[in-house]
Design brief:
By secondary structure, this protein is mainly α. It has helices at 45-56, 62-71, 95-107. The N and C termini lie far apart (68 Å). The relative contact order is 0.17.
Amino acid sequence: MFPWTPHVETVMLLSKLSDARHIDIHVDMNELDVTPAESQTAATYDDIKAYVREHSGLTVSTLYIAQVKRKYGIIERECYNKAKSEEAKQPQCPADKERAIAEALRFYGMIA
């Protein structure tokens, strides 16, 4: 139709197959191994902040909580607001706040 363009046009017929190519799978959620950090009962960042403030009087940021969780091997989802450059400086969690956050994580059963 358009001989001067390098494009190729394809027309396909898609149909719904009704033969035995369908497989039903049942997964019992009780059989799966879920760590306390991955369970629905795991503490939120706000829960951890409140616990730290109540028990130690310190105010912690979500960055510090994420750093401590990463240190203890709690895998988090991919961060959507990463720094543009690899060399961007991030403040590191002070030792006293790290201990308070670790205590909160232990309280909520996220680490041993």
